[in-house]
C-alpha cells in the first residue's frame, strides 16, 4: 500500500509540475534525459525571453524536430547537461519542456540560477510571432504563478537587456515591451 501511495504521489507531482500548464514533455517530443541537474530555488522572479534564430515552425512534427536539434546541439557541441532553455515555444502555439520549472537552465550566462529562460523558435528580427505562440507564453506564465513557480510580481525581460545580443529579435521584443510585467529598467536585475 505504501508503494502504491508513493507512486500516486509522484504522479500527482509530475502532473502538477508540467501537466496543468499544457507543456509538451520531453518524453512527448522525444527528448533526452539531462546528464545532471541542479535544482532552481523557487519561486523565481525573473523571466528572460529569447529566440532561436532558426527557421520557424507551425506543425507539431517540425517544432518537435527543431527542439530535438537544439537539445542535440546544446548537449553534443556545447557540452551542456541538457537543452539550455527552461521552455521552448513553437509557432504552433505549443510549449516544449526544456530544463522546466525545477532545474537550472543554461540560457543566459550569469542569470541561470535565478531565472526561467523561455525561447521562441524562429528569428524575430525577421519573423512576426504568431498569436498562438504569444498566447502560449501568457498561459505558461499565468500557470507558473498559479503553481508557485513564479512570484506574482515576476519581471519579464528580453535577453538583450542583460547581455550583448539581438535576442529575442526586434519584433518579439517590441511585443513583450507592452506587457505589464515587462521591466524597462533592469538596473536592479543586471549583474555588475
TrEMBL record:
Domain Peptidoglycan recognition protein family: 21-163
GO molecular function: N-acetylmuramoyl-L-alanine amidase activity; peptidoglycan binding; zinc ion binding
InterPro entries: Amidase/PGRP_sf, Amidase_domain, Peptidoglycan_recognition, PGRP, PGRP_domain_met/bac
Intrachain S-S bonds: 21-143, 57-63
Record-linked SMART domains: Ami_2 (SM00644), PGRP (SM00701)
Keywords, in A-Z order: Disulfide bond, Immunity, Innate immunity, Signal
Gene Ontology biological-process entries: innate immune response; peptidoglycan catabolic process
Signal sequence range: 1-19
Keyword Disulfide bond part of the UniProt annotation: yes
Keyword Transport: no
Superkingdom: Eukaryota
Domain named N-acetylmuramoyl-L-alanine amidase: residues: 32-169
Pfam families: Amidase_2
Similarity section: Belongs to the N-acetylmuramoyl-L-alanine amidase 2 family.
Record's subunit section: Monomer.
Protein name: Peptidoglycan-recognition protein
Lineage, uppermost ranks: Eukaryota, Metazoa, Ecdysozoa, Arthropoda, Hexapoda
